[in-house]
Structures are given as C-alpha cells and as structure tokens.
Design brief:
five-stranded mixed sheet, two-stranded antiparallel ribbon
C-alpha cells in the first residue's frame, strides 16, 4: 500500500556504541526517505564516535574502531544531515524509546538546531503492539501453550501471569532473571516530558519529577521552592534533552 503523505517520511535506524543516550554515540545512521509522490531515497553513513566501540556493541552490529577511524564525526555531518531531514517526519522501530532520543542528543551536542517538536513520529513497534492481541489470554496461549480457563477471575489471572513470566524467562536466554532489571528495562512505560523520562506528565498535563527525592512532585513547584535544584541538575550527568526540558519549565515558571 502506498503511504498517504503530506510531508516526506524518513525511516531511520542507528547503530551506536551502546544504549546510554548520555554517554554513547552513533557509529552508523541509515535512512530511507519516502516522498509524497512515492519517490524513495536510501542513504547510509558511518560516523566516528570519538570514543571506543565496546566489544559487546561490535558483536551486535559488526562495526569496529578501525571501520570508523577515518569517518567524519557527527558534528561534521550534523548540519548536512539536518538539512536532509528538514521538513520531514520520522519513523522507526522502537524509535520513540531509543533512536529519536539518541539522534536528538547528538544534534544538541553538535550545537545544531534540529527541532524535534515540529515533527511527527511513527513507531512501527508501538503499532505492532497495539494492533496485535496483547491480552493475558493471548500471552498464556503463546508462552504456555494452554487455554486460560476462567479468564478475568482474579485467581486465574494471577496464576496465569506468574506462569507466563516463568515461561518468558525459559524462552528467552537473554532475559535476565532479575526483578530490578525486568522492572527497569522491560516494564516501564511513561508519558515522558523528556526522552529519558526524568520528567513525566500527570493526567492533567503537569510535569512531575520521575526520579530522586522529588519523585511525584510538580517540577515547577520544586524549582520555585528549591531554586538550587535547577543548578544541581544542570551541572549533573543528565542528557542534554533533559536539561533543555528543565530549562523550558524554569523559564515558564519565571514568567508566570
């Protein structure tokens, strides 16, 4: 089916030195630009991350330090890349959780103004999860190969959920049998203000802290009552996108 587009849509994927948006860097970017008239362009470019590529990252994407030692840095290509993406919407698989935040962070580090807020984002993984059945009955049939009797009774659902988790751990060797890991890495979905999820919106659209001693408190309220907290975060090891979001809230607070 041909896509119904008003703006060019760029499908993109990143290979990186790791999954820490603050510390890791892009080593390869590929994008497929689909124009409203159906024309398609695909481009790939390797990037010198200016930091060593860990062996565990190379094991995934096959890119070594030698492969990128003579490649341009992201800062060197950032302006050109931003121009190529100008006026485009973005799409990817799991892009809302990783690729978009990582790309935004790299543009901020390079000092190139690339306004993510003016673009629409399509995450094919989220569509997949929303359109294909993700009920407990479906999970029980898939992982345990059994039909869930008395579904939606509290006891049956509780037991089934327990069995599904055990079956998931059996099925996926890379799924760590550690509750903290399962909680943080596989079970967190928030209405994020910033890409890293340090701030989230409540049901009324108010920004709340999502970490630390002020978790659950309105960001604007904390900044008014404890102005030094802003300076602490700006000096801390937080993503640039998080600091940018915090600054916007602070400026709004000062002008209110």
């Amino acid at each position: 089916m041909k896509l119904n587009l008003k703006n060019p849509l760029v499908f993109f994927d990143l290979e990186t030195t790791g999954i820490n948006i603050t510390h890791d860097r892009i080593v390869e970017i590929s994008f497929l630009k689909v124009h409203p008239n159906g024309k398609e362009e695909i481009k790939s470019r390797r990037i010198n991350p200016e930091i060593p590529i860990p062996p565990q990252a190379t094991a995934i994407h096959g890119i070594t330090d030698d492969d990128v030692k003579d490649c341009p840095t992201f800062k060197q290509v950032a302006r050109s890349l931003a121009d190529q993406l100008e006026g485009c919407d973005l799409a990817g698989f799991n892009s809302s959780r990783f690729d978009v935040p990582m790309l935004a962070e790299e543009f901020l580090r390079a000092g190139v103004d690339f306004d993510m807020g003016r673009r629409k984002f399509v995450d094919v993984q989220i569509i997949f999860h929303k359109k294909e059945q993700r009920t407990l009955e479906a999970a029980y049939a898939f992982y345990c190969d059994k039909k869930l009797e008395n579904a939606h009774s509290a006891e049956a659902d509780t037991v089934a959920t327990y069995e599904v988790l055990k079956s998931q751990l059996d099925r996926y060797p890379d799924l760590e049998n550690d509750i903290e890991v399962l909680s943080k890495e596989y079970s967190s979905f928030n209405n994020n203000v910033d890409f890293a999820g340090r701030f989230i919106y409540d049901e009324k659209g108010v920004e709340l802290f999502n970490f630390g001693k002020h978790k659950g408190k309105p960001v604007m309220e904390v900044l008014n009552n404890e102005p030094s907290y802003y300076a602490w975060m700006m000096d801390g090891d937080f993503p640039l996108n998080t600091k940018q979001a915090l600054t916007k809230i602070r400026l709004r607070s000062m002008n209110s």
